[in-house]
Amino acid sequence: DLEGFRETLARIKAAPKTALVLGAGGTALVVIKELLRQKAAVHLWNRTADRAKALGDRVNGFEVLDGSEIGRVSSTFDVVVNATSVGLKEGDGLPHPDLRFRRGQIVVDVIYHRETQLMKLARAAGATVSGGLPMLLFQGAASFRIWTGAEPNVSAMKQALDDALTKKGMTPIWPSDI
Question: Which of 1, 31, 106, 144 is most buried by its number of CB atoms within 10 A?
Answer without folding.
Answer: 31
